[in-house]
Amino acid sequence: MRQKLARVIGGVAMLALVAGGTACSSSDDTASGDACGNKIAFFGALTGPSAALGINENNGVKLAVDKYNKENADCKVELVPLDSQGSPDQAPQLAQKAIDDAKILGIVGPAYSGESEAAGPLFNEAGLVTITPSATRPSLSEQGWKTFFRAVGNDFSQGPAAGNYIKNVLKADKVFVIDDQSAYGAGLADEVKKLLGPAVVGSDKVQGEGKQVEFSAVVTKVKAANVKAIFFGGYYQEAGLIRKQLTAAGVTAPLIAGDGVNDAAYITSAGAAAAEGTILTCPCQPAAEARGTFVEEYKALNGADPGTYSDTAYDAANILLAGIKAGKTTREGLLEFVKGYSGEGVAASYKFVEGGELDPAQVKVWAFKVVGGKVVPDQEIPKS
Questions:
Q1: What is the predicted pLDDT for the residue at 363?
Q2: Structure confidence at residue 45 (pLDDT)
Q3: Is the dihedral of CA 330, 15, 148, 39 positive or negative?
Q4: In this structure, how many other beta carbons lie within 10 angstroms of the beta carbon of residue 212?
Q5: Is 131 helix (H, G, I), strand (E, B) or coil?
């Protein structure tokens, strides 16, 4: 599931940008003179095997839009959900759907790296700004897309951090690395391999997107290697099944995985007993530590606690809404607003640098651990 912002204004000040007043500001960006009737979209999996993280994010965006509309009742913004099912194959058609709706001024997403690769060129050509709360493949910011922005650190931060955790906390000197061949999973696994070097004594690839459910071949390889830790680059559905089958085969080495697995749905897939002790990294803080009243408001609206990337999606939506509030009601105007944005949200401070990355100084990587059937914070991982 998975650089660059500076602390300039407080969280209250950022919300004030969105909340102040009851109607959209006038601006030269408003071509028709009517600044209302505008839309933002969420682009990510809302159904299918990768839906849990997408639902977390969409619920964060819903909260941002709900609050904005209550405070700007005379000039509401509509949220358009674009369900990609996390599939790169569906992404271009879905991107074109968003592009064809002239009222959609900005996108929160795409949520995943593979669909971002597929949709990014279309959004760039259309000048439609996107802020992903969770797509972490480093190459996404190297495509020359002027419309791409990232509200989290990329795998150049997460991969080495996961490797450092394996090396320095788990002190594992024999590691097996598995990935699902996705843009995200393979890239993250490669970064872990670079950090661990000769400690990686074996590696293998599996199929993602729900295409594989039986993993006996890789389980046999891991068991034969007699490793002290296993790293998986991919998403929670396959990770859960691999963990379950490893445990059934008597493999007790801990599984470490990235933010694409950092969800309670992993525990459901693996089973609580097999999942116990799994380490999950994320270039994000625990959602429960989000600033202000975010946690309480999220739970009141959605009937559940915020999950991984609920807070970064909320912040990404608020950046777009702040631009609309400031009268940036054309795609060109909102793109320029985001490009020059700096401010503080509930999850982080935001300033975008080269390639639309988050300022590295603002990136934190946390390790989470499955304990007693729940994903709980373990520790922030030092940058080196």
A1: 86
A2: 96
A3: negative
A4: 15
A5: strand
Residue 351: helix, strand or coil by DSSP? strand
Q: Are 229 and 166 in contact (CB under 8 A)?
A: yes
Which stretches of the chain are assigned E, i.e. beta strand? 38-44, 77-83, 104-108, 129-132, 148-150, 175-179, 200-205, 229-233, 255-257, 279-282, 342-344, 349-351, 366-371, 374-380
- Please state, in angstroms and rounded to a whole number, the distance separating the CA atoms of residues 290 and 348: 9
DSSP 8-state code for residue 21: S
* Percent of the chain topping pLDDT 90: 80
Q: What is the DSSP string of 45-81?
A: -SSSTTHHHHHHHHHHHHHHHHHHHHH-TTS-EEEEE
Measure the N-to-C terminal CA separation of the chain; round to a whole number of Å.
Answer: 23
DSSP state of 230: E
The residue type at 154: N
Pair type for strands 374-380 and 366-371: antiparallel
Pinpoint the alpha helices (H) of 197-285. 216-225, 236-248, 264-270, 272-275
Intervals of the chain under pLDDT 50: 1-23, 25-34
For residue range 123-167, what is the model confidence (pLDDT) as tens digits?
Answer: 999 999 999 999 999 999 999 999 999 999 999 999 999 999 999
CB 182 within 8 A of CB 170: no
Which pTM does this prediction carry? 0.82
Strand partners, 71: none
Token pair in block for residue 381: 């991982």
The one-letter code for the residue type at 155 is: D
Rounded Cα distance, 12 and 6, in Å? 15
Q: Give the pLDDT confidence score for residue 290 in this predicted structure.
A: 82
